[in-house]
UniProtKB/TrEMBL annotation:
Cofactor: Mg(2+)
Organism this protein belongs to: Roseibacillus ishigakijimensis
Keywords assigned: Magnesium, Metal-binding, Thiamine biosynthesis, Transferase
Pathway: Cofactor biosynthesis; thiamine diphosphate biosynthesis; thiamine phosphate from 4-amino-2-methyl-5-diphosphomethylpyrimidine and 4-methyl-5-(2-phosphoethyl)-thiazole: step 1/1
Alphabetized GO MF terms: magnesium ion binding; thiamine-phosphate diphosphorylase activity
Top-level lineage group: Bacteria
Biological-process GO terms, alphabetical: thiamine biosynthetic process; thiamine diphosphate biosynthetic process
Residues that, per the record, bind 4-amino-2-methyl-5-(diphosphooxymethyl)pyrimidine: 40-44, 72, 111, 140
Stated name of the protein: Thiamine-phosphate synthase
Keyword Magnesium in annotation: yes
Length: 210
């Protein structure tokens, strides 16, 4: 897998919470057309057989554009469908378990919610981290926003080794303050998936971070 994704400022998540299943390919294509440098399939609470079928449909779309296709949570499924990587939360076990199952060139990402967790994920060998939620967000309920004040420190420390994608409640209309706090890479879920013109919104976000 090429490593252009490491330079990317926008990571797109195709989240079944916002996208009806029949629109998954269309929305994935739109995120790719808008320049997303990674795509993740996130389908909380859905069963593996459904996720397997969606992954098989979306993976070729990403392959065509050379963009890594990442599966949230399910290492076995990522191996089975030959996804480009897996994204794991804090409660999803050690990254070494994913590494042991996945081929050497696959991507392993970790959600982190504090500077300590960000440092730990780096030490554990994450290829990238998500850092957030910056703001409270309905997409990930029950978590307080961690605010903007730790971004610069985490970027200086962890971000000099691996890409750090800030996440959680980031929208086009608060992007300027997120950037001013130091963020150069973001994951945006609802503001993109609910946009009337997803490619245009994706480009606007990347321009706002450049
Ligand atoms: N993970 P939106 S926040 C999926 O902090 C996810 O790890 C988070 O969605 C974390 O852009 C989050 O709609 C939700 O707020 C991001």
């Amino acid at each position: 897998m090429a490593s252009h994704w490491r330079e990317s400022s926008l990571y797109g998540i195709v989240d079944l919470g916002y996208t009806a299943e029949e629109r998954l390919p269309e929305v994935t294509r739109a995120l790719l057309a808008g320049g997303a440098g990674l795509i993740q399939l996130r389908a909380k609470g859905r069963d593996q057989s459904e996720i397997r079928a969606w992954a098989r449909e979306l993976l070729p779309l990403c392959r065509q554009t050379g963009v890594p296709f990442i599966i949230n949570d399910f290492i076995d499924l990522a191996v089975e469908v030959d996804a480009d990587g897996v994204h794991l939360g804090q409660d999803d076990g050690p990254l070494s378990a994913a590494r042991a199952q996945l081929a050497g060139d696959k991507i392993v990402g970790r959600s982190t919610h504090s500077p300590e967790q960000a440092r730990a994920a780096l030490a554990e060998g994450a290829d990238y981290i998500g850092f957030g939620p910056l703001f409270p967000t309905p997409t990930k309920q029950g978590r307080p926003g961690i605010g903007l004040e730790n971004i610069a420190g985490v970027l200086a420390e962890v971000g000099s080794h691996i890409p750090v994608f800030c996440i959680g409640g980031i929208k086009r209309d608060n992007l300027a303050e997120v950037r001013a706090a130091g963020a150069r890479r973001v994951v945006v879920v609802s503001d993109l998936l609910l946009a009337d013109d997803i490619p245009a919104a994706a480009r606007e976000i990347q321009q706002g971070l450049s």
